[in-house]
């Protein structure tokens, strides 16, 4: 289990057994943000050719492109911090499943259009204020990435909230689907707020915001959208967790099988 | 080119108003643009709706073979570029449907014709994308062939169509260069990558040549469409232009074309090529290409599975409007 390693900072992770790399808090938080963005961007790109209307085909691609763009900047930054010669593709494509640090929410399958929009709302309701706050990070590169991402995530909140409202308020069927999606995905919302030791160190160093400070904004966004959508949050005893430590859901391996297919089949080629 | 089925005879009623028709032709001859509210012969309208909607359908169906590789693109840069490219094609579909709507046929109606198999789209999208190199080939050859036809259409007589084509051509040229760059990277890569590129060229070359439609000798009369400036060059002329432009590009990166008869004619300055297997073209047009059923099934599935979403959006819009009325009344 990787979880114990994350309990102390800095911690090490062996990539191929031959070399030991140091995961500083800055590296780790950057990598986690990159993984979140990549995996969700990848999921959104799976919609291509399957969207319910042509306009939404274009909108889903926009959301996916924003996230893949954010992931590229973040991976490049993480690679530079690490200083071990891994570029954006080395990090994005050539790790094992338990080395990906994304939250479980983003790897959840697209499901129906309601599930995709609920997932997007939960993620962006958190990431929009996160990036807004990270725009004043002590790390200049993270601050720059966040300043751009904040504007993008504002659109993600708007677009997904509008759809959740339409679906919740629309027809009996769309209401049922939207509520089912919320029931299925809400258990993955709590992980966004998780703070472990390296994250705490990064917060204290002024690199990233404390998720707790974003809770009021997140709650307000969700409450407002769900009220208008006539949807209700499920009552939960606890949230699902594990992604930040590399323990994923059963869906992740299949996603990686596609994502990594070319890089694994043709190692060391330039594309 | 995306409008092959134009080579089908128009069975509709013939022209009825010789005087108006002559005045209309005179406008076209003066290079005036025809706009949506202008009078136009019914056959001109029908032909345009058919041509523009075929083009739109080709953009939409064309998203499928390329979309097939977005989740498996070999690098983040390629993944983002491919997603953006496929998104552009969707955008092209959208402008073209809008241009067709200015002629009085709704997008729903056109979409229905596609889903029921009544409308045609380019035969090329009924071929499978089997390897990453196919993504390069689609950009280099398919977008490359499409722009041969589309650049002249930027000056076509119908204003909204011409304007849509100007915007689309800029993006298609970018796609063509991007596709060629993918192929070039493979051709200059390791042995596996070179083999992948060559295999893809072997599979895509002949279908790309078929995109221009049947040879002029067998084409149904296109004189009327030429006079209306809906079609501006013959199939064979465009095909030759494409071969002349593309063959040196392939040779430049060390690829071989799967045509033993391909040779440069010093006297004419053109590349001569071997006989095209038109029976294959006919099979694909008749619905028996490798992916015809799959493509149509996928469009239908997306449409059917999206029905509840479209209904919900409509229901919500109606409820909202009703709530606003209530509030206004209070
Ligand atoms: Fe296009
Ligand atoms: Fe195209
Ligand atoms: Fe294109």
Could you walk me through the main structural features you see in this protein, from its secondary elements to its overall organization?
- The complex is a heterodimer of chains A (271) and B (330).
- With 271 residues, chain A is an all-alpha fold.
- In chain A, 61% of the residues lie in helices and 3% in strands.
- Chain A is built from 12 helices and 2 strands, in the order αββααααααααααα.
- Chain A has helices spanning 3-6, 25-45, 54-82, 88-93, 104-107, 113-134, 140-169, 172-185, 197-204, 215-228, 251-259, 261-265; strands at 11-14, 20-23.
- Chain A has a two-stranded antiparallel sheet.
- The radius of gyration of chain A is 18 Å and the shape is globular.
- By secondary structure, chain B is mainly alpha-helical.
- Helix content of chain B is 65%, strand content 2%.
- In chain B, a hairpin with a 4-residue loop joins strand 1 (263-265) and strand 2.
- The radius of gyration of chain B is 22 Å and the shape is globular.
- Chain B starts with 17 loop residues before the first helix and ends with a helix.
- The complex binds fe (ii) ion (FE2) (3 copies).
- One fe (ii) ion (FE2) is lined by residues 59, 89, 92, 168, 172 of chain B.
